[in-house]
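Incident review: delayed structure delivery

Summary: a single-chain prediction request sat in the queue longer than the usual turnaround. Root cause was a stuck worker, restarted by the on-call engineer. No data loss occurred. The affected request and its eventual output are reproduced below so the record is complete for anyone auditing the incident later.

Affected input:
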Amino acid sequence: MSKQHIHIGVEDAGRGFKRFVKAWHKAETSETEKAEIHLNFEDFAMLASVLTPKRLELMKTLRQHGPSSVRALAKQLRRDYKNVHVDVSALEEVDLIQRTEEGLLIAPWDVIDAHVRLVA
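Output delivered after worker restart:
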């Protein structure tokens, strides 16, 4: 079973668009490559505001223990329900966690590769 990877980083829209166009051209020529999933932010401050240590812990707990409700997750994490709910909403908004058909939370990623360029 292959691991599910997501690449997270800081990238300007132009660079992301060029990567997309390159992948599109490869697909048109039937060059098959494993699909890459990227989540990019405008700057490091935005990335850090979404991917906080508490939210990383939340995703890790979901990944280790499987699908969960917000209430059960808050109990597992020994955190306030309201704060966990806020974190869940933020992570769902950027698709780092998802819901099953039954409405339970899951973390679909085995690996998060985070990249920050120091030089453009």
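Verification: The mean pLDDT is 86.
Action items: add queue-age alerting; document worker restart procedure.
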